[in-house]
Amino acid sequence: MTDTEQAPRGRATAEMVAARAQVSRVAVSRAFNPHTSLKPEKRELILKIAQELNYTPDRAARALVSGRSHLVGVIVPDVCSHWESQEIDALTTALQAEGFATLLFKTRTDYSMDEQLLAYMRGFNPDSVIAFVENVKPHTLARFLDRAVPIYVHYPLPGTSEEAEDDPLHDRLNVLQRDGIDQAVALLQGFGARRIAYLSGAEKSRANTSRERTLRQVMADRGLAPPVVARGDFSYDSAYQATIDLFRVGDGADAIFAANDVGAFGVIDALRHELKLRVPEDVKVIGFDDIAQSHWKSYNLTTVKFDLDERVRALVRLILRRLNNPDAPGFQETLNTRLVVRGTVG
Amino acid sequence: MTDTEQAPRGRATAEMVAARAQVSRVAVSRAFNPHTSLKPEKRELILKIAQELNYTPDRAARALVSGRSHLVGVIVPDVCSHWESQEIDALTTALQAEGFATLLFKTRTDYSMDEQLLAYMRGFNPDSVIAFVENVKPHTLARFLDRAVPIYVHYPLPGTSEEAEDDPLHDRLNVLQRDGIDQAVALLQGFGARRIAYLSGAEKSRANTSRERTLRQVMADRGLAPPVVARGDFSYDSAYQATIDLFRVGDGADAIFAANDVGAFGVIDALRHELKLRVPEDVKVIGFDDIAQSHWKSYNLTTVKFDLDERVRALVRLILRRLNNPDAPGFQETLNTRLVVRGTVG
DNA sequence: TCACAGAATGAACACGTTTTCATTTCTCGT
DNA sequence: ACGAGAAATGAAAACGTGTTCATTCTGTGA
Does residue A100 have a pLDDT over 90? Predict the structure, then answer.
């Protein structure tokens, strides 16, 4: 044994492992990459020595030559929004299992896109990018990420051709909101709701636009008058204030459809604690997302759900498929929504 | 102009920028690194051309030679826990401003450490690592991260020498919980609380151990009987069930101190909706963290706060100081806590 | 035994930067 | 006009890996 270089100063390298195992450095590389030809017992020996030396291939070096960083960029306006944090959580778990790591970036909270951020992110060379900032055009994202193919979470507008339209240039996850919203409106209609209000999310958000328009169309199809709209921005506080204004300044409502669950919580608290109204007896409330908090007893919210696990699985499928077929045309996945009935309606 | 190589296939490289600007590749590198000597007008020209070509230095290549990945690893058991998600959010914002990116890793939810995860993470070469898994010994973390110096969030146990003790080998953020807990107990004592219960967090969590022991000692110092302990794991559901057991199986309490705010929400909902008790009239509740939801009207929770911004600033200071002084002895920062009084006490 | 296919192996190259070092150019005081 | 020190510049080395390609080894069928 060459005990002279026993001092494992800093990080162990493939060279050191190779020296100790009496093999070439290339063999070490092969030992860590499956689907390469290497005698099994040799691979075993190398891996054993690697573990002793606390060696792991350097991903920066690996990325440099292979063009794969194994990083997935995630752009969020607000990590602690409940829905976002739950998606990040599930996504990180799923990606980790596939050998990827989640790289987090924060952008402006008004859901506008930030070109400087894209350039910044590009420096880290993510293999793929998932943007929660839905209003950004996919080709803008693509222009800034030369290597990575962005994944576009798409909320098709109802009544347009968007639902069917193919997009050969980008990978897309379509979220169809019509079914869940229709079930929600049907329920409200069954309870005889007359004045239905929509508490919006951030105006620039594509998810909000799509939900509002879909609600309008569903209500029209069912012969209901258009909803009263109160402006929020997905936050508890904005929903709280908007609800108060709706009843103090405006004419109130007997049912409120919130753009997301957190907003619905603000609506419920404003109704109960500020306006002294009962939910669901005086006003019925429905949310959107079905986050973990929605079953908490203080709210016990009826809400339109789209399954998180299903969504994450779809995203991971898109990522992996794209990495295995870099030049294939755009892949698509589609997700549906459904109503979860709890205590805030009837 | 050498129009032959006009096709900007794939990603732009420093070489291309250099060719167009009629300078050497080294000059391009210097243009992107401040504190290097380069004629201002030349730097300006290079940056302009770089922008035209959509060029950003490749961080993988940069990391390889400079030894700085500009990645900060964050290990969390659960991203969507409210407190964690808020810290991740604030941390990401702060790090982004300093040119770093947050690399997210999930570990087991029982707060035990996962050596396999550490080895996995090491491959990404983070410059620094912040572990929310407080029970891991800092030298274990250090052994797995040869280059990065881990930052240890330390909850000193009261009555031991830990508060004063220096640790020259690791960077440390001390969180002193005694002041806030003392204020909380004083408040409860003032309202004549007799039976005080502690709803614990995950047993292996250092934060929980420290909070429980500090509470014990504060109560003893004030001549109060030791707290009844109900076992939870920081989650809403566990707190909800433990509270029910406390009153149905055990002898109840007239004040409950929860290990975190989310647990306190579970306590409140169990008291109100399951046990039909009033908060604060029948039972007083105090939480720990002061997360954003704590001021929501349905809970309006009195809680022990330690300031998130202050904490994040301290962490970033530790990270930067360490990177600028790789061989310096361990740095320390200290944070205090205080009570925020809202509606769940008196 | 021989020829041959396929597996196993290692030398050399490539990836895109930063850093070191030696050289050239500029600036300023005399 | 001169010299000295500072600023500016580029050639070459280095970082740690994956990949290509040519070579050697192994086992099989004739």
Answer: yes
Quick check: B158 pLDDT over 90?
Answer: no
pLDDT reported for residue B81: 84
A30 touches strand D (CB under 7 A): yes
Instruction: Classify residue B326 by burial, with Cβ atoms within 10 Å: 0-12, 13-18, 19+.
Output: exposed
Secondary structure (3-state) at B64: helix
Domains in chain A and their CATH numbers? 3-57 (1.10.260.40), 68-161+308-328 (3.40.50.2300), 178-306 (3.40.50.2300)
Q: What pLDDT does A170 receive?
A: 77
| Residue type at B151 in one-letter notation | I
Interface of B with A in 73-92 (CB under 8 A): 78-80, 82, 85-86, 88-89, 92
Distance CA B110, CA B280 (A): 32
CB atoms within 10 A of CB B37: 5
Token pair of B123 as six digits = 């491959």
Q: A324: Cβ–Cβ under 8 A, 6 or more apart, which residues?
A: none
Residue A292: DSSP 8-state: G
Q: What is the pLDDT of residue B166?
A: 64
pLDDT score of A107? 86
Query: Model confidence over B45-86: pLDDT tens digits?
Result: 999 999 999 899 999 999 999 888 999 999 888 888 888 899
Q: What is the CA radius of gyration of chain A?
A: 26
Evaluate whether A69 touches B60 at the Cβ level (below 8 Å).
yes
Strand C contacting residues by CB (7 Å): A 23-24, 26-27, 30, 37-40, 42, 61, 64-65; B 10-11, 13-15, 25-26, 28-30, 32-33, 55, 57-58, 61-62, 64-66
Mean pLDDT of B269-284: 97
Q: Is the peptide bond before B280 cis (omega within 30 degrees of 0)?
A: yes
**Would an 8 Å CB–CB cutoff place A262 in contact with chain B?**
no
Q: Could you tell me where the beta strands, DSSP code E, fall in A125-265?
A: 128-131, 149-154, 171-175, 196-199, 228-230, 255-258
**How many residues are listed for chain A in this entry?**
346
Contact yes or no for B228/B164 (Cβ under 8 A): no
Interface size between A and B, measured as CB pairs under 8 A: 159
Sign of CA dihedral B36, B37, B38, B41: positive
Taking CA atoms, B345 is separated from B124, B181, B306, B319, B340, in Å, by 47, 14, 19, 39, 11
How far, in Å, are A69, A74, A115, B57, B130 from residue A124 at the CA level? 8, 12, 15, 9, 20
